[in-house]
Specification:
The protein is an alpha/beta fold and about 280 residues long. It contains 10 helices and 10 strands.
Length: about 280
């Protein structure tokens, strides 16, 4: 993964009529890279191929299926599914470093890892089985618990230093951790990570008119923008910055606003280095 090139900034797209129409409105010229959801293509690979051809850009695959922090048989069963979508030509697979269930039972959510040495051993054992058989690079997304004697950043740094797994910093996951799991300061957590391992950043982007009717949503959105600017000032240089559009507001952002934010993210993180020839616009 050390030799992979910068991709740039874009947004997570769903395989739906809403997003197909949105793509038509915003156009593809602003795009460097797209992120796709594994669950929307795993049962219809041909449809996935057609969608990727329409995008005309590199793609990243987002998954919640490996259950890296939990049951080993879950990872073994799922890795074959992830390789099944090799035909889509994804740059890497992003999966949550969480427990998501067993082969027979779904956990019903993304349960973050326990902060212990035993948990690290489970994760490393699962990765030892998965990585040699996964045909694409793997990155993990962060969430936070307070159960155990370690910092979550210690676990992520340990895993990245001892395996060929990189990090996806999700600002939304950190915010969800504050609301549902354990208070965590975004900047403090990120500053504890080894910056060279950060391969991707996730940031929500809601419909600004709807956010104005909810002070909480608007405040969180502005906070995420502030964190992005701070990360850039810290010298963090991911290979991709992905905006997630359908997390907190019913409607997608105005296409002009998304375009402005994509260009803003490119200036923050990619203006000092060239994109690959295949991703220039």
């Amino acid at each position: 993964m050390a030799n992979m090139s910068s991709l740039g900034a874009e947004y997570l797209v769903h395989n739906s009529v809403k997003y197909h129409n949105y793509l038509d409105n915003i156009g593809i010229d602003v795009a460097d890279v797209y992120e796709l959801l594994l669950g929307q293509f795993v049962d219809d690979l041909l449809d996935g191929e057609k969608f990727v051809q329409q995008l005309q850009r590199p793609v990243i695959l987002h998954s919640t299926a490996l259950s890296i922090a939990g049951h080993s048989r879950m990872s073994e069963r799922t890795v074959g599914t992830l390789n099944y979508v090799d035909v889509l030509g994804v740059e890497w697979v992003g999966d949550h470093l969480c427990y998501t269930g067993t082969p027979s039972t779904c956990a019903g959510g993304l349960l973050p890892p326990l902060l212990s040495e035993d948990q690290i051993n489970i994760i490393q054992s699962n990765l030892k089985n998965v990585l040699p058989r996964l045909h694409k690079p793997l990155a993990n997304v962060n969430m936070h618990y307070a159960l155990g004697n370690l910092r979550l950043s210690d676990i992520f740094n340990n895993i990245s230093e001892k395996t060929d797994v990189k990090l996806i910093v999700s600002l939304e996951n950190l915010s969800q951790s504050v609301n549902h799991y354990h208070p965590v300061d975004h900047k403090q957590f990120i500053s504890q990570l080894n910056y060279k391992h950060i391969i991707q950043i996730h940031c929500t982007l809601g419909n600004s008119e709807e956010q104005k009717r909810s002070p909480t949503l608007q405040q969180k959105q502005l906070h995420h923008f502030d964190i992005l600017e701070w990360m850039a000032s810290e010298g963090i240089r991911p290979l991709a910055v992905i905006f997630e559009l359908e997390t907190e507001t019913d409607n997608l952002p105005d296409p002009r606003e998304l375009t402005e934010r994509i260009l803003w993210a490119k200036e923050l993180f990619f203006s000092d280095r060239p994109l690959t020839e295949t991703t220039k616009v």
